[in-house]
Design a protein that fits this description.
- This protein is of the alpha/beta class.
- It has a single domain, classed as Transcription Regulator spoIIAA (2-Layer Sandwich), CATH 3.30.750.
- Helices cover 49% and strands 24% of the residues.
- The chain contains 5 helices and 6 strands; from the N terminus they run E-E-E-H-E-H-E-H-E-H-H.
- Strands 1-2-3-4-5-6 form a 6-stranded mixed sheet, with helices on both faces.
- Helix 2 crosses helix 3 and helix 4 crosses helix 5.
- It starts with a strand and ends in a 5-residue tail after the last helix.
């Protein structure tokens, strides 16, 4: 795992041809623009295709409307390069339901060709991601190594930019 970018409220890391984003602050236009730059550069280095994994810290406010529009545009722009996208929600209850609803609405609005899934744990996401990632990129991932990369990225984001509003 190697860090691709880090800033206030996020860390982006690379594991093979998977971009991992760990969020410790609300999705804003500036943060999504940073994701767009990282995603574009990462996709350019991986002509076989990529997958994107997002880890969202518990209790964060939902992404604002500008950020949602930018996320939808990113999904459309990188549709051909993305094999699949997965999100781990580090929380439960109403917050997780509301966040899951926003993710589903983004998926609907972008009408992307890649598969998207929201999971409750790193292990669940890593196990699910293997098949669609392999089918669209031809790259076999080690689920335990992916889980470890996700845990390291989460730890870096927690240490780097402790939770912010």
């Amino acid at each position: 795992m190697s860090v691709v970018d880090q800033g206030s409220g996020y860390v982006f890391a690379a594991f093979e041809n998977v971009l991992i984003a760990s969020w410790t602050a609300q999705g804003t236009l500036a943060r999504i623009e940073a994701l767009g730059r990282a995603l574009g550069a990462f996709a350019a280095r991986h002509p076989e295709g990529i997958s994107s994994v997002h880890i969202i810290a518990a209790g964060l406010p939902l992404a604002d409307s500008d950020a949602r529009a930018a996320l939808s545009a990113l999904m459309k722009k990188h549709d051909a390069e993305l094999a699949c996208g997965g999100t781990v929600l580090d929380g439960t209850g109403f917050w997780a339901s509301a966040t899951r609803g926003v993710i589903m609405s983004l998926q609907f609005l972008a009408s992307s060709s890649f598969t998207v899934r929201t999971c409750a744990s790193d292990a669940e996401l890593a196990a699910w991601l293997l098949k669609p990632h392999l089918q669209r990129t031809g790259v076999t991932l080690d689920p335990k190594a992916l889980e470890q990369a996700m845990a390291e990225t989460r730890a870096l984001s927690s240490a780097h930019g402790a939770r912010e509003p």
